[in-house]
Design a protein that fits this description.
This protein has 623 residues and is α/β, with parallel strands linked by helices. It is built from 23 helices and 18 strands. Helix content is 43%, strand content 14%. Helix 9 links the parallel strand 5 (169-173) and strand 6. It is elongated, with a radius of gyration of 30 Å. 48% of the residues are buried.
Length: 623
């Protein structure tokens, strides 16, 4: 540890912090994609030179090169077994780079790091304790918790680390917008919670530049008995001549340091994009200046509590979940066309609706093959034909930005019944060079849709209206171990799924097995039935589609049939399967093969005739 006391130093003066590590290393020629934290072991002289450059520029608070040196992050590089060693050596490298008048603080970054805000609390506790223990045993002067988008994760880290040490802890939030944390706390409320947690300092770092963080400070009631620290980015990252760069100049940082001091900030440094030149400009601006007291804004009326909007749009029809709880309910899949012509699709949708389908469900580029937008077609069938659409949402095709934009658009169109699927990889489709995104899993996307129902965006921002998504989960029973598939399905139910849609089933025993395996679930199951169109189609499904097996007697009945004869037999076999399915399930999911909507139209009428017959028999028995 340093010979000086960090608390005493900040009681009476300002401290200039250091600047960026990762972006500065990149500027020095270190490639992206490697583990920068490991460089403290493999190239300690490189890390030492960065620390020394910041020290010589005037920084007297040096952060260790350990921002991502937690077990979860290091595991991605095969380094999970080196957590203690990397953190310990990073402290030694930083200490050896500076003189005795500098403080070395251990940097601990958010483990969640901007991903979907759902995590195993106990696992995170263990990881924070492991990293903090290594840094503290190595002799840091304090701990800086930085780049936390979510207050609740930051509070968890403080709860774990505070009992380990009496050394100072500084807790820094990163903001997506000036007024709130990602998990929807106002900044007033967030810092009030942190003050109660036992930290010594609070503040901001990363994502935003000096002006935006100044604006956040001007609007926020900060705890007056805690230090304030601010480490802004060098502005916003922009594309210049084909390269991504930060444009904010050192001179501007020097001017900004004075404005931060006026807000009562005691520790002023830099984050992404800053260099020793930026730190030197700030150190020169602040040289020999005393700190100024914090003056909080007056007449604040906004509550510091976490807000949840209450405005809810009214439904005018029951959902498929509400319907299936009381009667046989048929949803029919009709895939969007692969070209620009829509008349056949719309005719089929209208006929299926007239036959009694409760909803028309549309895949989202099934089999990774490009099709017309199911959002657009869903809006057309809803507005022009009065049909309830149920659109699939794949994890494959959109990043998180596009995914939220897409579902917000669905909400605006009144399309609120959806099925979440992972999606086949693009390499099997008609554009194999396209990228598969998979920013989130199907479990995470289900949770995020239900989060919109709470009035909270994917990023944690409060919304002015709650969504009303009824979210379905896909279930593939065609696996070697059905119990494992059911356990996966249970996790989707835990994530918030409202109903289940299965892959097509072709044998009575399979239907009965699915009924038994899912009987304990408290949400409805729509059993999938897809009529065969001919012998070749049956052979393809039996031999080339993973998991699907067509019973030998069905193959025999389809043998050598094609065209109209094949489709006729396919419908007859599907009716027999429906007879079995309706004994176990009220939810029926009919899948239209190759746009032959006439087949699923006939099967829809068959199910609803069976429903009417059951009602008649029930009424006769009561009489």
């Amino acid at each position: 540890m340093s010979g000086r006391d960090l608390r005493q130093c900040l009681q009476n003066g300002l401290l200039v912090g250091d600047g960026a590590m990762a972006t500065y290393l990149y500027q020095q020629g270190i490639p992206v994609g490697i583990c920068y934290e490991e460089l403290s072991l493999t190239q300690p002289d490189v890390i030492r030179s960065v620390h020394r450059a910041y020290y010589e520029a005037g920084a007297r608070l040096i952060e260790t090169n350990t921002y991502g040196a937690n077990r979860e992050r290091l595991e991605r590089y095969g380094l999970a077994g080196k957590v203690t060693r990397i953190n310990r050596e990073a402290v030694a490298v930083a200490r050896s780079a500076v003189d005795d008048d500098a403080f070395v603080v251990g940097s601990i970054g958010s483990i969640l790091a901007g991903r979907v805000p759902h995590y195993d609390t106990e696992a995170y506790r263990d990881m924070y304790e492991e990293q903090a223990t290594a840094l503290l045993h190595a002799g840091v002067d304090g701990i800086v918790l930085e780049t936390f988008l979510d207050l609740e994760e930051l509070l968890l880290a403080v709860e774990v680390i505070r009992p380990l040490t009496d050394r100072p802890i500084i807790a820094q939030l990163a903001l997506m917008e000036v007024a709130r944390t990602r998990d929807a706390y106002t900044l007033d409320g967030a810092f009030a919670h942190l003050a109660k947690s036992g930290v010594d300092g609070v503040g901001f770092n990363c994502r935003l530049g000096p002006t935006e963080l100044l604006r956040a400070l001007e609007q926020t009631v900060m705890p007056t008995d805690l230090w304030i620290s601010v480490f802004p980015n060098a502005g916003r990252l922009g594309l210049v001549d084909g390269n991504y760069e930060y444009q904010t100049s050192p001179a501007y940082f020097g001017e900004s340091a004075l404005r931060l001091r006026e807000q009562g900030v005691r520790i002023i440094g830099g984050c992404c994009g800053t260099t020793p030149a930026h730190i030197r400009a700030m150190a020169e601006s602040l040289r020999d200046l005393p700190p100024l007291p914090r003056v909080n804004p007056k007449n604040k009326t906004e509550s510091s509590a976490r807000r949840v909007p209450i405005h809810l749009r009214q439904r005018n029809k029951p959902t498929i979940v509400e319907r299936v709880q009381r009667e046989y309910t048929v949803i029919v899949e009709l895939d969007p066309p692969k070209d620009l012509e829509t008349s056949s699709f719309l005719e089929g949708a209208a006929r299926l609706h007239a036959a009694g389908a409760a909803a028309i469900t549309m895949a989202d580029n099934s089999l990774a093959t490009t099709r017309m937008s199911n959002m657009a077609l869903g809006a057309i069938v809803k507005s022009q034909l009065g049909i309830d659409p149920l659109v699939h949402i794949t994890c494959r095709d959109r990043n998180l930005i596009g995914q939220q934009s897409h579902v917000m658009g669905l909400h605006a169109l009144g399309i609120d019944q959806v099925l979440v699927i992972t999606g086949d990889p693009t390499r099997i489709g008609d554009l194999p060079g396209a990228s598969s995104i998979y920013d989130v899993t199907s479990f995470e996307l289900i949770r995020m849709l239900k989060q919109l129902n709470e009035g909270i965006s994917f990023s944690g921002k409060p919304l002015k209206q709650r969504a009303q998504f009824v979210v379905g989960a896909a279930f593939n029973p065609h696996v070697r171990h059905l119990d494992a598939a059911v356990r996966r399905l249970e996790k989707k139910v835990e994530a918030g799924a409202d109903f289940i849609m299965t892959q097509p089933v072709y044998d009575a025993d399979g239907i009965r097995q699915i009924a038994e395996a899912t009987a304990h679930l408290d949400i409805p199951v729509f059993i999938g039935i897809m009529p065969l169109t001919g012998y070749r189609n049956a052979l393809f499904l039996h031999n080339e589609v993973p998991g699907i097996k067509i019973p030998s007697d069905v193959l025999e009945r389809m043998k050598d049939l094609k065209g109209e004869e094949g489709r006729k037999m396919g419908v007859a076999i599907a009716r027999e399967l429906l007879d079995v399915a309706m004994a176990y399930f009220r939810g029926i999911y009919l899948i239209t093969p190759f746009a032959y909507w006439q087949m699923t139209e006939e099967l829809t009428r068959y199910v609803l005739r069976a429903k009417q017959n059951a009602l008649v028999q029930s009424a006769g028995g009561q009489g």
